[in-house]
Amino acid sequence: MDLALSEEQRDVRRLAEDFVAREVAPHVVAWDRAEEVDRGIVKKLGAVGFLGLTIPEEYGGSGGDHLSYCLVTEELGRGDSSVRGIVSVSLGLVAKTIASWGSEEQKRSWLPRLASGDALGCFGLTEPGTGSDAGNLSTRAVRDGGDYVIDGAKMFITNGTWADVVLLFARTGDAPGHKGVSAFLVPTDTPGLTRRTIHGKLGLRGQATAELALEGVRVPASALLGPEGKGFSVAMSALAKGRMSVAAGCVGIAQAALDAAVRYAGEREQFGRPIASYQLVQELLSDIAVDVDAARLLTWRVADLVDRGEEFATAASQAKLFASEAAVRSANNALQVFGGYGYIDEYPVGKLLRDARVMTLYEGTSQIQKLIIGRALTGVSAF
Ligand code: FAD
C-alpha cells in the first residue's frame, strides 16, 4: 500500500477543505441548534462534484478512486457530520449500489441526477422492529401484474425527508429470512409513501432523519434493483462500502477533536501556565493523536483494497469498529481538555462527541462488527 497521496488526491482534499471552510464551518453551530442543515448544501455538494465522486463519468460522475472519496469524507466529517452523512448515504449507499447492481435504464435514470445533486437518495433498511437483524425485516412487496405493491415501515432513515428516491428493502415471496428480501428503487413522491422527521436526536441534529410509512405503494417491476430475492446481498454489499465511508467520517471527527484540543491547550492558562504544559493534558492529546492515525490507516487500507478490486468487507468492519470507537474516545478526551467550556455549544467539542456517538450504532453496531470479524476469523457465525 502506497501511503503517498497523488497530486489529484491532494487536490481533491484541498477542494474539500476549501468547501468546508466556505460553505460549512460558518454555519455549523446554527444548523445544530436549528436541527436542520440548510438544504441548499445538497446542490452545492453536487456542483463541487462530491455527490458523484466515485460514479463513472459516463453516468455523470467524476470516476474518482475510493481513497479520494475517503479524503473528501474525512474533510466533510471534520466540518460537520450531518453534511458528511448526506454524501455517505446518497453517493456511498445509494448511487454506488445503483452503479453496481442497476440495469442500464436505472443507471441512466438515476445516476446523473444523484451525482449533480438534482436528486438525493436515502437507504431504507432498518424498521421499527428490525435493526441489527436486518434480514428479518417485515416490509412486504407483493407482485400484482406488472407491478409490486409495498406495505410496511422504515425507521431512522438518513436524508429521509429530503430524498427523491429510497433504496428500499422489502420481503417478496415466502422464502424465509434474508433469502426472501428484494431491493427496490422507490421515488419518494409515489402515492402511499409518507415521511415524518425524527426530532430530538442526541447528535447529527442537522441531518434529515425520517420514519417512512408505506401503504399500498405501487411501483413497476422495473423498480426492482438486482434479482428478486437478492436484496439482502444488495444491502450487505452497500453497507460494506458504507462502513469505509463512516470510518473516514470518524477520522474527520477525531482530527477535529485533536485540532481543537491542541489549540485550546496552548491558549488556556491555569496555575500560571498553559494547560498544554501539564503531563496529564499531554496524555489526553497524545491518546487522541494515536487514535486519529490508527483510524486513518485502517480506513485508507480499505480504500486501497477497494481500488485494487480485492476483498474488503472484513477490513471495512475493522476500520468502522475502530474508527467509530476512536472518534467517541477522541471527542471525549478533547472535551476533558476544554473543561467546563467543552460542555457548552459555543465550543466545538461537545457537538463532536454527540455526533460521534451514533457512529458506533449505525451501519452495524460495534457488536455486529465484532460478529462479522469473528465469523471471518473462525468460520463460525455467532449472530
Ligand atoms: P438493535 O438491533 O435493537 O440493537 C440493540 C443492542 O443489541 C445493540 O447494542 C446491539 O449491538 C445489540 N445486539 C443486537 N443483536 C446482537 C447480537 N446478535 N449479538 C450481540 N449484540 C447484539 N438505518 C437505515 O436503514 N438507513 C439509514 O439511513 C439509517 N440512518 C440512521 C441514522 C441514525 C441517526 C440512527 C440512530 C440510525 C440509523 N439507521 C439507519 C439505523 C441503524 O442502522 C440501526 O439503529 C442499527 O442497525 C441498530 O439497530 P437498532 O437500533 O434496532 O438496535
Q: Which terms summarize this structure?
A:
383 residues, alpha+beta, four-stranded mixed beta sheet, four-stranded antiparallel beta sheet, 15% strand, binds flavin-adenine dinucleotide, Acyl-CoA dehydrogenase family protein, flavoprotein
Account of the protein in words:
This protein is of the alpha+beta class. The strands form three sheets. Strands 1-4-5-8 form a four-stranded mixed beta sheet. A four-stranded antiparallel beta sheet has the order 2-3-7-6, with helices on one face. It has a two-stranded antiparallel sheet with strand order 9-10. Helix 4 runs antiparallel to helix 8 and helix 7 runs antiparallel to helix 8. It is globular, with a radius of gyration of 21 Å. It starts with 6 loop residues before the first helix and ends in a 5-residue tail after the last helix. The model has no long low-confidence stretch (mean pLDDT 97). The structure holds flavin-adenine dinucleotide. Flavin-adenine dinucleotide binds next to strand 1, strand 3 and helix 11.
